[in-house]
Amino acid sequence: MTLQPLVFETIPPALQDASDRLVLAARSPATLRAYRTDWAAFVAWCLTQDVTALPAQPETVSAWIASRLEQGRKAATLSRGVAAVSCAHELAGFESFSRSRIVQDALRGMRRTLGTAPTRKAPATVELLRRMLDVQPDTLIGRRNRALLALGFAGALRRSELVILEVGDLVPQDGGAFLTLRRSKTDPDGAGQTIGILNGSTIRALEHVSVWCEAAGITSGLLFRSVDRHGRVGGSLSDRSVARIIKTAAEAVGLDPERFSGHSLRAGFITSGAEAGADALLIAETSRHQNLDVLRSYVRRASLLKAHAGHRFL
C-alpha cells in the first residue's frame, strides 16, 4: 500500500493566522501604522470610484497613483501606498502588484514627474541644540525634554530608538556611558548594538538624563515617559511625541518647526561631527550607518563650503 501525502486544499485558519502574524512582524510598528492608513485611503477611494478594492485590478491601482499624484503626494508616500496595497493583497491570498507592468510603469512615470530627491529636514546641529536646551522650562516636562533632546543628539538616535530605551540600557563609565540599543531600524531582529555616550562639556547629555530621572523618580523601566499638565508621570512616549518635542523646541528658539522632524537630532550629530572634521568611520561608530554612502552624503553636504575648491582664488 502506497501512503499518500496529506495535502490541505487550503491552509488551516489557525496556521494562516500565525503566518500572517509573522509577515506583519517583519515590518516595523511605524510601517504597519502607515500601511493601515494607506490601505484605508485606498479602500475609501475605491468606494468613491465604485471599483473593487480587494482584489483590485492593476488599472485601479495605477489610477489611484495618478489620483494621489494630482493631490500633491510625495514620491515616497505614493510608493509606500502601493506597497501597502500589495501587502493587503498578499495577506488575503491574492497576487501582489510587484510584477504588474501597469503599476510599475505608473510608479516610474510618477518618479519622472516628481523626481526622487528626498526632502531633507533641517539638522539640529550643536549650536541649535544648545539654544533648544537653554529655553526648556524648569519643570518636569522641561527636564524630560532636555534629557531627551540631549541624549538623542549625543547618541545620534532615531525617535523610534528613544521611545524604547530603558534605564538599564545606560551603563556609566569613566567619561560617559555605554548605551545598549536592543532593537533599531538597522537591527530589526534585536541582536543589539552598543555605542558610547560622552557627557562632554557642551551638551552634557548624561547630566540631563540624571536630573530627569531623579525628578521623575524613575529608577527602572522606560527612560522617557509621558508627563501630564499636572506633572504626573505616565506611560511610554510615542515616536510622534518625540517629533513634536523637537518641533516645539525649534519653534521656541525662533525657527520654523516645519523644517525639523524626529530625524533632526540624528542628522544634527552627524552634521556637527562632519563640520568639526571628525572621521566618517568614527561618526558611523555612533550613528551605526550600514551604508557609508548615506553617511558620506551628510559629510559632503557639511563640507560643501568649508572644503570648496574656490577658497584660494574666489
TrEMBL record:
<dbReference type="InterPro" id="IPR013762">
    <property type="entry name" value="Integrase-like_cat_sf"/>
</dbReference>
<dbReference type="InterPro" id="IPR010998">
    <property type="entry name" value="Integrase_recombinase_N"/>
</dbReference>
<dbReference type="InterPro" id="IPR004107">
    <property type="entry name" value="Integrase_SAM-like_N"/>
</dbReference>
<dbReference type="InterPro" id="IPR044068">
    <property type="entry name" value="CB"/>
</dbReference>
<dbReference type="Pfam" id="PF02899">
    <property type="entry name" value="Phage_int_SAM_1"/>
</dbReference>
<dbReference type="InterPro" id="IPR011010">
    <property type="entry name" value="DNA_brk_join_enz"/>
</dbReference>
<feature type="domain" description="Core-binding (CB)">
    <location>
        <begin position="9"/>
        <end position="93"/>
    </location>
</feature>
<dbReference type="Pfam" id="PF00589">
    <property type="entry name" value="Phage_integrase"/>
</dbReference>
<keyword id="KW-0238">DNA-binding</keyword>
<dbReference type="InterPro" id="IPR052925">
    <property type="entry name" value="Phage_Integrase-like_Recomb"/>
</dbReference>
<protein>
    <recommendedName>
        <fullName>Integrase</fullName>
    </recommendedName>
</protein>
<feature type="domain" description="Tyr recombinase">
    <location>
        <begin position="116"/>
        <end position="311"/>
    </location>
</feature>
<keyword id="KW-0233">DNA recombination</keyword>
<dbReference type="InterPro" id="IPR002104">
    <property type="entry name" value="Integrase_catalytic"/>
</dbReference>
<keyword id="KW-0229">DNA integration</keyword>
